[in-house]
Fold this protein.
Amino acid sequence: MMWELIQANRRKSIFIFIGMGLLLILIGFTFGSFYEPESGGFLGIFFALMLWGILSMVSYFAGSKILLAVSGAKEVTKDVHPQLYNVVEEMRIAANLPHQPKIYIIADAAPNAFATGIKPENSAIAVTAGLLGTLNRDELQGVVAHEMSHIINRDVLVMTFAGMMLGAITLMAEVFTRSLWFGGGSRYKSKSSDKGGQAQIIILVLAIALAILGPIMAQLLYFAISRKREYLADASAVRLTRYPDGLASALEKISGSNLDLKTANKVTAPMYIINPLKKKGMQLSNVTSTHPPITERINILRSMTQGVNYANYQNAFNSVKGKTSGLIPQSGLTDSSKISLRDSELSQTSFETDKQVKREVGDLMMKLNDFLFINCTCGIKIKVPPDFKSSSVTCPKCGRIHNISH
Amino acid sequence: MTFFIVFIVIVVVIGFFFVSIYNSLVGLRNRVKNAWSQIDVQLKRRHDLIPNLIETVKGYMTHERQVMENITKYRSQAMDAGTVGEKAAAEGLLSGALGQLRVQVENYPDLKANQNFLALQEELTSTENKISFARQAYNDQVLFFNNKIQMFPSNIVAGMFSFKEEEFFEIEDKTEKAVPKVSFS
């Protein structure tokens, strides 16, 4: 069952988490000892943990708001995009969540999406206008299900604390190297003259090594958690929608787009469904990326033809990766309920031409900028700009007069 | 004296154990109830949408009176249904009738271009999806709850306070089971 999986999931991430914590403590101790050989080590640890604590507190209480603000997301009601609203509600029902996540749209033509919120009660899902324009209903459902899975698996919580640990380590290493270039060295010399220099030199070497390698190691650990959680979110998404092809073709479309998301940066990148900072032609090795290779994710999803529970995903994962790794904890695999796939429901006309996609995206941008949309009874759509002065507008086709209430 | 204290401690520990199992069973039963009410909400929503749909479609589909009469008829049957079984049967018929409408819409390009109809179609599609996802979530909960009732040691507590196994919500109609959907394209 999903609930047990969340528990097991949490336990597994804890190991990597502890690894990062130990690294943080080690760095704190070494840097502290470097400045103050007598008792500085413990002061350093204290300082490191404080730094992590403060960063975590800030992002715990304000992280969502900051992330949404930085990405330029705007909260929307159902009228702006009924289908998005409906799809989110469908996934909420499928996940049996009591609270509906808030829905945000980012006015950007690059297709992408992310979820945020430490607790499911105050979570939010943000998608770009480009995503809504490019994907059909099934694909949108797949993406929303993936984001909903991040929420129910408590990924945001884990990634926040791990991310802040990475931040604390990087910050400390930065400060240390700077201080070493600007005057830190002289202090070291004066101390080493009257004390046994041997130990001091060892600490210096260790500190420099940690300053260089620490952030890299922390980053690798952080990426390891991130990648694992992307796979898990895919697995949960498929279980929710019962339609792996939807998510698969959504990933194809998103990765096929050559538009860059303007508001994304290095810090917010791991939050998105697909790494928004992809550079053309850059196919770096696995360990240095926040997301699993997109083709692998698609291949796994495409080879799920037997069913959609976690065991099916694990099987597909094994056959694509060619190894038997325990991606999904045992308790998730005993999920006996055989859930069959469902068929596609291409109810919504998928936009074939570029022109239609652009029109759809353009409409959305207008809605986000407070344009008023009126559906006339004769079947056409009238778009009224927000600075329209008159209190009524006449339908250009049938001549009906619509009142505008500002 | 020592024996007495040990005895008290054991009784208290077992008592706590029982209480926690009892509480978790109550919690699970409430989840099942909540999941069931989700299905109910969506079924009601579907019934509410149908008059609007008929109203919009009526002007265009002049030749399909039979289809629309069927929809109206099954809708009122479904609304009157009392037991879970009756409900499932009536909803199955209603789904079938809506499916027929979907096929007929193909012949009316004007209707397919109508914005109001498109909006209504999205609502109906979504409601059908919500019904099927709610059913899935409900059955998940029921499975979990029933397992808990059958397994040791919670089965003892369940027996003492007569927790009963809940029924799965299955729909007879095969097509409905495979793909509960309405798509007008």
Q: What stands out?
A: Chain A has two domains: 1-340, 370-406. The longest helix of chain A spans residues 197-241. Residues 242 and 342 of chain A are 6 Å apart (CA to CA).
